[in-house]
Write a structure and sequence with these properties.
By secondary structure, the chain is mainly α. It has a single domain, classed as ABC transporter involved in vitamin B12 uptake, BtuC, CATH 1.10.3470. It has 14 helices and two strands, in the order ααααααβααααβαααα. Strands 1-2 form a two-stranded antiparallel ribbon. It is globular, with a radius of gyration of 19 Å. About 45% of the residues are buried.
């Protein structure tokens, strides 16, 4: 993976550079609402909020994919748990976003704990298939909930409340709250991967047998990371439901899980900041190509193939390569 080829003495400045890259992205996002207002296109703020929500989910997936080598093909299930937490709790009059996030994270932690404990007893393609199976089970469970629209989904009467107010009804406020959540979770992920836990997880990714021989239990560390990742992804679902003001099982289909993996690969596996950049690149390309042609998936696929062929470490690797070439 990305970090394996980097010598230990050089790893710290590389990580610092990626933190700076994330800060640059956050700064650019923070400047977007005034730019959108000046351009007379407030719809840009809604699109950017959607991008931020998916960036949270991609970063959470990168935590297990990039640092734990766990290719989860059912990770969109946690997006659905977060989104449906908003819809179901709102139907009972519970609209506080912190309560909704807590419930979504709790359900996701339980689901990840049970399914992860089973999935992690497998390896390789078997792990991929069993996570896909669990994700589809969750998908069809929510399709069966006719009280919440079944396959058609359900619209939200209003967005979540923040500190008992309807501040999130304002698109710009929702955007900045989502940006703040992304920044906070990025900091948390950065601290996790830089901690002893993160170093052990990376060691397990490189050689689980050797890590077990020196006294670490791979299963325990991988399961913990799996649960943390699921909880973080559910937060993205909460923000996505508020952005769309609509909840549907489509949020948790296997296609969505595939899109999250594409975002991580496009940005650069095992970089965190790259996952954010990958989400931005993928969704901006989707919007731009969609405006030009109805065959945009073909051109997006071609771009992805070229990126993998000429920059296997994604956008992050490409940018770092350019940086090393500068005099």
């Amino acid at each position: 993976m990305a970090e394996a080829a980097i010598p230990a003495p050089a790893r710290r400045p590389v990580l610092a550079g990626r933190v700076k890259a994330a800060l640059v992205l956050f700064g650019l996002f923070a400047a977007l609402p005034p730019v959108a207002a000046a351009a007379g296109d407030p719809f840009l703020v809604l699109i950017a909020t959607r991008i931020l929500a998916y960036a949270i989910a991609a970063m959470a997936l990168d935590l297990i994919l990039g640092f734990g080598a766990m290719v989860s093909f059912g990770h969109a299930a946690y997006l659905g748990f977060g989104a449906y937490a908003v819809a179901i709790l709102a139907s009972f009059g519970i609209t506080d976003i912190f309560v909704q996030i807590a419930c979504a994270a709790g359900v996701s932690a339980l689901f990840a704990l049970v399914t992860g404990a089973i999935s992690l007893r497998t390896r390789g393609v078997y792990f991929i298939m069993i996570t896909l199976a669990f994700g589809q089970m969750a998908f069809f469970f929510f399709i069966s909930l006719s009280a919440y629209g079944g396959d058609d989904g359900v619209g939200l009467r209003s967005r979540s409340t923040l500190f008992g107010t309807d501040l999130l009804e304002n698109d710009v406020t929702l955007f900045y709250v989502t940006l703040a959540v992304l920044a906070a979770l990025f900091l948390a992920c950065h601290r996790i991967v830089g901690s002893r836990f993160g170093r052990v997880l990376t060691g397990i990714r490189e050689n689980p047998v050797r890590m077990e021989a020196i006294g670490f239990t791979p299963f325990r560390y991988q399961l913990t990371a799996f649960v943390i990742s699921g909880m973080m992804t559910s937060v993205a679902g909460v923000m996505l439901a508020n952005q769309a003001e609509f909840v549907s099982p489509a949020f948790m289909s296997w296609h969505r899980s595939g899109e999250l993996i594409v975002m991580v690969v496009l940005g650069g596996i095992g970089t965190l900041a790259g996952a954010i950049g990958g989400a931005v690149a993928a969704l901006v390309l989707e919007e731009a190509l969609g405006m030009m042609t109805e065959h945009w998936p073909f051109w997006f696929g071609l771009f992805l193939v070229l990126m993998v062929l000429f920059s296997p470490r994604g956008i992050t690797g490409f940018v770092e390569k350019l940086g090393r070439r500068r005099p």
